[in-house]
Each structure stands twice: as C-alpha cells, then as structure tokens.
Amino acid sequence: MSDGASSNEVRAALDAAVTAIGGSTRDGQVAMAEAVANALSDRHHLLVQAGTGTGKSLAYLVPALVHGKRVLVATATLALQRQLIDRDLPRIVPALEKVLNRKLSFAIYKGIGNYICLQKMNSGEQDPDGELPLDLGALGKESKKLREWAAKPGVSGDRDDAPEVDRRVWAASSVTGRECMGANNCPFGTECFSVRAKARAQGADVVVTNHTLLAIEIADSHPILPERDAIILDEAHEFMDRTTQAITEELSPGRVERAAKMAKKYVPGKSAEAFQQAADDVADAIRDYAEDAPHDPTKTGRLTKLPDQLEGPLRNLRENGQALLSLINADSDLTEPSILAERARVKGALTEVQQSAGRLLQPHGSNVVWFDPAYSTFYSAPLSVSAILRNNLLTKTPVIATSATLSVGKSFDAIARSIGFVVGGSDAEYESEEESSEEELIDPANLQMLDVGSPFDFANQGMLYLPRHLPEPGRDGPAIEALTELGELIEAAGGRTLALFSSWRGVELADAHLRDVLSELDIPIITQKRGDSVGSLVKKFADQPNSILLGTISLWQGIDVPGPSCTLVAIDRIPFPRPDEPITSARSAEADAAGGSGFMQVSLPRAALMLAQGTGRLIRSMEDRGVVAILDPRIVTKRYGSILLNSMPPLWRTSDGAVVKEALKRLDLQHTTPELDVSE
Questions:
Q1: Contact 257, 281 (CB under 8 A)
Q2: Domains and CATH numbers, the chain
C-alpha cells in the first residue's frame, strides 16, 4: 500500500469497527477493505464483488473514513441508505475516532425535492402553481399538518422524517432543482432545509447519497453534490439503469399545459400567448396520437422515428419556449422574493418542457424514443450512458463500484463496460476524448477487478433445484406443470417460501392456483399487489415463519429474511428483459447491427445479474439452510445456461425433485428437532 493509510492502520480500524457492531472479521472483508484503501490512496478505479455475508459496507466505510479526505457513497435503494446512516456509521464512527485519534463525521444528502421549500410553503398561496386546491377536506388537513411540523425547532425538513402526506400535498410544498430560486435570493435562504443539509454534507468525511442524484449531476455536468476525493458506488449493478432513468425525458399533455398556464400567469402578453398556442398544439397532437395508438401497434412502444404530426408542433414549442425564457431572463431588476420564486418555478417548468421537446427532436440514432398509451406520454432516453459516465465521472475521480452480484459467467467485463470503464483493450471513443483531456484526468482503463467471495458454505447450506421435466415458459405466465411443482415444493417446506415471478401475470396465476391446492393447509399466502410497500410485505412474511410471499421484480433484490421464514426461494423463469422493452430492444439491435449479439451482450447479462440477485435471497446467515428452485428448464437445456449458473452462488445442484422435497420436509421438521440438517 502506497501513500495514505497503511495496511496495519486499515486492519486495526476494521477490527475496531467490527467489534463495535458485535461481529467478527472475515477474510473477504479484510481483502476488500485493503483493496478499497489501495484504490483511494493510489487513485485508481476498483470493481469488487463481495458475496452475501462479506460485510461489504464496513469494508468500504472503514477505509473511506481512514482515508482522511471526503468520500461520497451512492446507493441504489433507500433501505441501504438508511442502514448506512442509521445503523452502520453511528456505531463505527466513535470506535474509529479512538483508533485514529481524530474527529470523524458523516452526513446524508438528497435532492432538493426531498426537502420542504419554506418559501413555497409560506408564499401565501397553498399551491402557487395552481395545480390543486389544498384548502378543502383531507388534503387541507394534511397540508396544515405538514406546515405545523415544518415550524417545529430542529426538524430536518426531509420527506422521510416528515408526517406522511399525499404526494400532491408534498409537491405543493417542495420544488425541483430547476425551480429553486437559490439561497442568495430567497428570504428563507438561511433557514432552508436543503441548504442546511448540504452545508452539513460539505464538511463531512463520508457523505451518503443516491444513484439518481449522482446520475443527474453527471449528465448535466453541473455540481449538485458536495465536492469529493472519491466515489463509492454500492449496489453498482443498478447504476447504469438508474442513470438511464434519471436522464430520461418525458412529454405529456399535462406537462406542457402546466408550463403554459404558469407562464401565462407570470408574464401575460404575446410571448406567453404564443407559447400557450404551441403547448395546446402539442397537447392536441399527443392526444390524437394516443387515440389512434390502441388500433395501431406500430404507434406504441419503441419508435424508430418521431411521428410526423408531432415534429412541427414540437419545433414550435421549443422555439416559443426559448423566446419566452429569454424574455423572462431579461427581466433582471427583480428584487421581490415572491416574484423571484415564481419566476424560478416558471423557468424550471419551461426548461423541462423545452429540453424534453429538444431531446425528442434529436436524431433517433443516439436516442431511444417510445410512447406509453397508458399515460399518453412520449419518452426519450440515451441509447447508451457509458460514454457519459466515462467522460463526466470516471475521468474526474476514483470510483469504487461494489455489489454482491457484478460478474456474469465469472467475468466483470459486461458490468464494467456498462458503467463506462475501458476493458479488454482500446476504446476509440475514449481515445478521441483523451487527446484533448488534461493530464491530471484519471484513466478509465486504470481499473482493478476483484471477487472476494462469500463466507457462506453454499454447497452445504443450500440446494439448487433444476427440474428438467417442466415445459419451457410461454408468454402467458407459468405453465400448470410449473405451478403444480411449486405447490408441491411449498407443501414439503411447510410454507416458508419466497416465490419470485418475472411478471404480474405470473403472480396472479400462482396466487389463484396456490389458494386452491393449499387451502387445507395452515400456510398463509401473502401476495404482492401493484403499489404495495415492499417493507411491510417482507415484515409480514418474516413474522409468520410458515407463510409464503408471492411477488414480482421489486422483491428479487434487497430482501433480507434470514432464519426459518425463508427456506425455499422459487423462481418462475429466467428473468430475461421483455423483448418489447424499448431501451433494451434498442441496445440489442445496436449490438446486432455492429456484428455482435444483442442477446449475449444485453439480454443475457441482465438476466444473469437478476437471477443471481434472486438466488441470493436464500442464504443470508451462517445458520441458513434451504433450496432455490428455478422452474425454467432452459437453464439446463440451453447452451447459455452455463453462463447463468456460473453467475450464481455455488449451491449443490440436482434435478431430482424427490431428493429436494425430502430435504425441505426435513428442514420443516428441524424447527422441532434441531439436530436434523439438510445435508443429512
């Protein structure tokens, strides 16, 4: 280890942190911590896969705190963000302060929209944008409750800490980053919750944030987050998708009409009227298109070109929007705070609409455009985000990317390329960019990759059941044979099952079948429905050890239920992305056109990572035992199956259903006869 923390210093700090949380040091955790410390000291990139049970959060938090410079940690999920801020950091920081003999600090920072805007809340109008009446009924009571909470001394203003209110009430009391008038112009600037949160973060050793906020900053090349010496991406397998989602533009009739209404109220006159007409034309064109869409399948999903009837109205909207923005910006003598705030909101709404229109009008080669008739909305997203991440992130600061699942068939190349790293030789796009780069920029090819494994003995703790006799799944959900097999497995396990499906149709079919065949057994069935809170579902499942939980994609990852409540994880099919999913299909087509394979380069890696995540729900502690059942024979009958299997934890494999069901019965009995074991 070169300049910076020594190996002994990192090891001593890690020992102190592990003791503070009441755990034990693990070889993989030590190896990861030393690799992270090296990356921070030598300023190179690191990709590290740390299997379940490694304790990876401590393996990066400890060297980050020892490092002595500011480190940003970005997570994909709120659950992990809360774990770091509420559980891990409060326990390890006091212990490390004693070892390092210096004060340490940490903070969380979220986007502006996650905090109450005091100016908007106290503007005299309960909804300055005029979107909804907040003075009547339940919404009025919720609005009053939120105002009373915001007035209490010492509150954070953070949505996660605030009383639970309708999303419309929150929207009427918050602004986006584009709509914020800025602390210097705002009469509440010194009291602003967002400003105070950012000030705390500016001085912290470790700042925790989310993938989306980091992605927005990277895409816009505009500072949102505090300055930092390095970035740690946890749940890094999600980062490409989160970045894509963060910079996806959308345009709907409601959005353009809202912008026009706000503009006309703020700057009445010919320019606002011209924009209003342009907005009406776009809204009418979208509604007309939406009416035809159900009768013409070529008008929904991914579009290879912008519909002709939209091109003229969109150009007109963009031009009139620019003229209106120029007019608003020219009015620079304003000093009245309420008018400045209104101007900021109008500019934000106009900028969003104009930017969305501009993206839709760009050539489709670099963008993916699609239409969703359910929301009468056009969307536009970049075909690839790797170049954006490479040029705006990886050349600026060391990036340490980690997850329990990063490799596909034992190789890190797919995930590395998706994040923007240069692997496997030269990259023409990077080389052309580098010619004009400054010398101090970091080389995105200077990457180390490491798999520290897992402390769990997967082969002895669990089985992987791969039934060959089932039919291949079709488009209509699981076959009756697969549902029958699932019912028999659940009965053998005495419940205790997390059943994961790749579609809502699969969940619904399984729910109907299992309620029939398990009706005489004491096995509670918990079925996820659209909009359900994942946290409450999982708690209910964990609290009833003989229950089963049926759910779709949101339950495939981030679910941690150790112990007897989950001894069987059943997966209905290989989770290949839908062929009609616009971005995936466009990326696959691009790979095919370049002489590669969209299936092998796009669909298979995504399926492998998701399958590894789903399989990883089973073994969550040293004591866990159980079975993962994949009810899709393609994993053993197709050539690509070996890549999928090599991406998963190395459970003991079998296609013998009788052996698996007997093992599940023994596990069920083990709760009254502890000496019985699945390995017997």
A1: no
A2: 7-105+203-244+397-451 (3.40.50.300), 112-194 (no CATH), 249-382 (1.10.275), 458-669 (3.40.50.300)
Scored b (16 or more CB within 10 A) or e, 306-343 reads: bbeebeebbebbbebbeebbebbeeeeeeeebeebbbb
Name the band, by pLDDT with cuts 50, 70 and 90, for residue 438. Answer: very low
Query: Is the four-CA dihedral 621, 539, 664, 484 of positive or negative sign?
Result: negative
- Compute φ and ψ for 538, nearest 5 degrees: -65, -40
Q: Residue type for 440, please?
A: E
Beta bridge partners of 451: 49
Angle made by CA atoms 492, 493, 494, in degrees to the nearest 5: 95
- 10 Å CB burial of residue 425 (0-12, 13-18, 19+) is exposed
Q: Specify the pLDDT at position 432.
A: 42
Predicted pLDDT of residue 598 = 94
Structure tokens at 160: 């996660």
In tens, the pLDDT along 2-47 reads 445 678 899 999 999 999 999 888 999 999 999 999 999 999 999 9
Q: What is the pTM of this model?
A: 0.89
Count Cα atoms within 13 angstroms, Cβ side, for 177. 10
Q: Say whether pLDDT at 321 is over 70.
A: yes
Q: List Cβ neighbours of 360 (8 Å cut-off, separation of 6 or more).
A: 249, 251, 306, 310, 314, 369, 378, 380
Mean pLDDT across 208-217: 94
